[in-house]
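[recover] target loaded
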């Protein structure tokens, strides 16, 4: 597992950062000139972070050099490479900005909030693109005879932001009994009607599943969409949590508390694209469930999204 000491030792110079990036396939080691079919020369100038490629043959000599960073994870990087890797580790570890500044082993230049935000946004973007495709690739949850609990919850409800009321975001959650593979979707248009919820359920839950929900009316048509539908009536004074046939939604409901606590650092009320935070959450949860190394998984997401 990566830790801050190993990060510090591995990425303490620009040269070590570049060779790591080459080994990981984040940047090209060599480039062939299209005209001459010959390897180009790699120049590591001070000004350019990961260097430029230049062909020395014939008419190519007059052409301008090709930046090695273009189209890669390192395009438009304006901070030293050790800090790029440090911020990747910080993002993977889900550190707050304060933790980033406190733990930084590089004193100069001091990382501004804007810089941290910027790099975190790049990381999140790569993670979201990776996670969107990955969720589809692993397939649906549930199936005939299997039980899936489904519930919706509003995030950011009744919060005020600079005098403006924030309406919050409806999120649909789905989890199969006996599995930790939690599926979350932000409701488009922020509505939780059947027209919105059923397609989201069909995206994630296999036909024939037994679906447990509360008595929200949007779920009434589940039976006509190939599911076996069971309800728990939260307003039943005798048994508000578990129906007579044993139906309950307590696993998915207990998830909401965990997720809302997780997002406190990210100030989700201000988030312009809340669904990205939800994808990030499922990515992180998946890593925790499988005891993976977050830094390695972030590298995977970056390699998936940025191909040099
Ligand atoms: Zn050439």
């Amino acid at each position: 597992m990566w830790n801050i000491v190993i990060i510090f030792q591995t990425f303490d110079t620009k040269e070590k950062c570049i060779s790591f990036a080459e080994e990981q396939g984040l940047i090209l080691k060599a480039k062939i000139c299209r005209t001459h079919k010959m390897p180009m020369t790699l120049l590591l100038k001070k000004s350019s972070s990961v260097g430029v490629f230049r062909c020395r043959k014939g008419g190519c000599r007059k052409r301008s050099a090709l930046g090695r960073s273009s189209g890669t994870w390192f395009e438009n990087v304006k901070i030293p490479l050790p800090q790029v890797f440090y911020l990747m580790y910080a993002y993977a570890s889900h550190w707050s900005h304060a933790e980033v500044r406190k733990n930084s082993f590089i004193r100069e230049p001091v990382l501004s909030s804007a810089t941290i935000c910027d790099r975190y946004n790049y990381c999140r973007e790569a993670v979201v693109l990776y996670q969107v495709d990955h969720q589809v690739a692993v397939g649906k949850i549930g199936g005939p005879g299997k039980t899936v609990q489904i519930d919706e919850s509003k995030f950011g409800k009744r919060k005020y932001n600079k005098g403006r009321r924030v309406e919050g975001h409806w999120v649909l959650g789905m989890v199969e009994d006996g599995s930790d593979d939690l599926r979350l979707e932000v409701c488009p248009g922020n509505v939780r009607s059947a027209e919105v919820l059923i397609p989201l359920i069909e995206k994630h839950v296999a036909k024939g599943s037994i679906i447990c929900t509360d008595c929200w009316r949007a779920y009434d048509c589940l039976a006509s969409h190939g599911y076996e539908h069971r309800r728990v009536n939260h307003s039943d004074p005798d048994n508000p949590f578990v129906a007579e046939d044993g139906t309950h939604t307590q696993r998915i409901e207990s998830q909401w508390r965990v997720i809302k606590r997780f997002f406190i650092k990210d100030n989700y009320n201000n988030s312009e694209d809340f669904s990205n935070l939800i994808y990030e959450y499922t990515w992180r949860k998946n890593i925790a469930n499988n005891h993976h190394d977050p830094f390695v998984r972030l590298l995977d997401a970056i390699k998936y999204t940025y191909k040099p």
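[recover] notes: Residues 234 and 241 are 6 Å apart (CA to CA).
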